[in-house]
Design a protein that fits this description.
Elements: H1 2-17, H2 23-31, E1 34-38, H3 40-46, H4 48-85, H5 91-144, E2 147-152, H6 166-175
Parallel strand pairs: 1-2
Length: about 180
C-alpha cells in the first residue's frame, strides 16, 4: 500500500513540475502522420509539360500507324488483284507473286513490331525525366505541408477533398519548380 502511495505521489509531483508529460504521447497517438492523395491521371492531363510530351507521343504513334496502314492496305490490294487474275496466270507465276506478297506482309509485321519498340523506348526516354519531376514536386509539397504519406487516388476507396494535393502538384510542375 505504501509503495502504491509513493508511486502515485511521484507521478503527481512529476506532472506538476513538468518532468512527466503524458499529453504529448496522447496527442501524437491521436493525430498520427498527415496523409494526402494525388490524381495522377489528372496531373498527366493538366500539367503543361506532360500535355506537350503526350501530344508528341500521339503524333509519333499516329504517323507510324498511318505509314503501316498505308503499306498494309497497298499489300492487301495487291493480293486481291493477284487473286482476281489467278485464273489467267500460270500457276508457277501466281505462286511466285503470292510468295513475294506474303514475304512483304511478314516484313511489314516486323516493321510494325520495330516501330512499336521504338515508340516504347521513346516514351520511356521522354517520360523518365517527367516522372522524376513529378516525384520531386510531390515530395516537395509533402515536406512543405508536413505530409507523411501521399497515395494515388486510384488506390483509395475514399479521399476527402481537403487531402487532395493534385492541383498544387500541377501548379508546381507548370511553374517549373
Amino acid at each position: 500500500m505504501k509503495q502504491a502511495y509513493c508511486l502515485f505521489a511521484i507521478l503527481i509531483a512529476g506532472m506538476m513540475f513538468g518532468t512527466v508529460d503524458f499529453s504529448s504521447d496522447v496527442e501524437a497517438q491521436s493525430t498520427g502522420p498527415r496523409l494526402a492523395f494525388i490524381e495522377i491521371d489528372r496531373v498527366l492531363e493538366e500539367a503543361t509539360a506532360f500535355k506537350a510530351k503526350r501530344d508528341e507521343m500521339i503524333d509519333a504513334k499516329t504517323k507510324a500507324q498511318d505509314l503501316l496502314d498505308t503499306r498494309r492496305d497497298d499489300l492487301l490490294k495487291q493480293i486481291q488483284e493477284l487473286e482476281d487474275k489467278k485464273e489467267l496466270m500460270k500457276e508457277s507465276e501466281y505462286y511466285k507473286q503470292r510468295t513475294e506478297l506474303e514475304k512483304q506482309l511478314l516484313e511489314l509485321r516486323a516493321l510494325k513490331q520495330e516501330k512499336e519498340r521504338n515508340l516504347a523506348n521513346l516514351i520511356a526516354e521522354t517520360l523518365g525525366p517527367l516522372r522524376d519531376d513529378l516525384q520531386a514536386a510531390i515530395e516537395d509539397i509533402a515536406k512543405e505541408e508536413g505530409v507523411g504519406f501521399v497515395f494515388k487516388k486510384e488506390n483509395l476507396a475514399y479521399g476527402a477533398a481537403q487531402f487532395d494535393i493534385t492541383q498544387k502538384v500541377i501548379d508546381r510542375l507548370n511553374r517549373g519548380n
